[in-house]
Amino acid sequence: MASRIQHLLDKTSALRADRDRTAQYIGSNAERYAALLQCALAKDPEISKKACWVLETVILNTPELLRTDREELFRVFQETTDASAIRPLAKIIAFWSESFLSKGTESTPTITKDEADILVSLCFNWLLADHPVAIKVFSMEALLHLGREQTWVHRELKDQLVRMYPVSSPAFRARARKILGILG
Q1: Quick one: DSSP state of residue 107?
Q2: pLDDT by residue for the chain (184 residues), tens digit each?
Q3: What three-state secondary structure class fits 106?
Q4: To 5 degrees, how large is the angle CA 145–CA 92–CA 167?
Q5: Which H helix or E strand runs over 20?
Q6: What is the DSSP string of 127-162?
Q7: Which of 81, 74, 69 is nearest to 2 (CA)?
Q8: Is the pTM higher than 0.90?
Q9: What phi, psi does 120 have (nearest 5°)?
Q10: Neighbour count for residue 139 (Cβ, 10 Å)
């Protein structure tokens, strides 16, 4: 199964239509989803990156897949280092934390305390690292939601945003203002 997914990823470009087509093939099939996670952990950076792009679409369309293969998913979160692959992962975390902690939808699985600790650590690392602004924005959004369960996160997020604000891009500052307004 992983070789079939890898073959599809080889043909997948950054175009939305390509990513959507591959994500549609994977759909809600748990076996294909597991194979996609394996591809996201591949040694080949192109396959890994493309798998993360598709993973974003798959999760946003079928959030109940977050219930399966959690250990593999967290390996993907923790082991991915390419910024082009981290951006969709940060978006998944922002979506998941908002859906679970803010909306409480039934289709979105819970986040355990241990998982939340890992996600908070990852998001702070991504926020503070030299990453593109999209990764930082998704990370601060995730931290805003995850901080509802762990109050120290809001204090630290506020401190970091205030510190980073003067030297950041206009896009970063715009989102930071919004989040600082929410944090008070």
Answers
A1: T
A2: 778 899 999 999 989 999 999 999 998 898 999 999 999 999 999 999 999 999 999 999 999 999 999 999 999 999 999 999 999 999 999 999 998 876 656 667 889 999 999 999 999 999 999 999 999 999 999 999 999 988 899 999 999 999 999 999 999 999 999 999 999 8
A3: coil
A4: 65
A5: helix 16-26
A6: HHSS--HHHHHHHHHHHHHHTTT-HHHHHHHHHHHH
A7: 69
A8: yes
A9: -60, -45
A10: 27
CA atoms within 13 A on the CB side of 139: 27
Q: How far is CA 165 from the centre of its chain?
A: 23
Distance CA 157, CA 146 (A): 11
Cβ atoms within 10 Å of 125's Cβ, excluding its own:
13
Which region holds residue 15: left if phi is over 0, alpha if psi is between -120 and 50, else beta?
beta
- Contact, 126 vs 136, CB < 8 A? yes
CA angle 146, 151, 154 (to 5 degrees): 70
Query: Are the C-beta atoms of residues 91 and 56 closer than 8 Å to each other?
Result: yes
- Hunting for tokens 């591949």 — which residue is that? 42
Every domain of the chain and the residues it spans: 1-65, 81-184
Nearest to 127 by CA among 101, 105, 108, 153: 153
3-state SS assignment for residue 43:
coil
What value does the CA radius of gyration of the chain take, rounded to a whole number of Å? 16
